[in-house]
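Protocol step 4 of 6: structure prediction from sequence.
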Amino acid sequence: MNIYEILDPEFKKEITESRDLKLFPAGTVILDIGSYVNYIPLVMSGSVKVVRTEEDGREILLYYLTPGESCISSILSGLTQDTSKVRAVVEEDAEILMLSLAKAKEWLTKYPEWSTFVFELYHKRFEDLVTMVNSIAFQKVDARILYLLNQKSQLYKSKELNVTHQQLADELGITREAVSRVLKQIENEGKIQLSRNKITLL
């Protein structure tokens, strides 16, 4: 759900006046688990991955944020004055509007399109989470890896992905050894080509 597809001129003007546009390099943590939410991030360019991290350091990818999208967890935590349950990390260098939390609350009653955006974003992320849970519960590791590679391919708009086996393992919540073994199997099936720190979808 892209917020700019539903904005009227008045609302767009108010967002512009309430914004704080910041540039973040890849790898920057813009929201961490246990922190309070003081702003609502709206991605303008680049991408952000949202992950859940356990106490033992394991993490699993929940979903990506692309231009025009925001993090529903940030919105819900901010509106309820609760701490964040997820970590948001910049995947590609990103421009992000840091929207005022007070304004985000006010807009829920002032602008119906903002409420629509929040509810549709919630619905989309719920579907993402259902897909992720189904993947963990019912899909084999090779299907999970291929699904993640295709997600990254769509995100970067390229079939050549600069990604390590360890990065895939971290996002899938499995061991690097398992990822390497399955990637080799997938390569033997003619679906990918492996090279140093690069995977090409065929």
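Step 5 (inspection) to follow. The first helix runs from residue 9 to 18.
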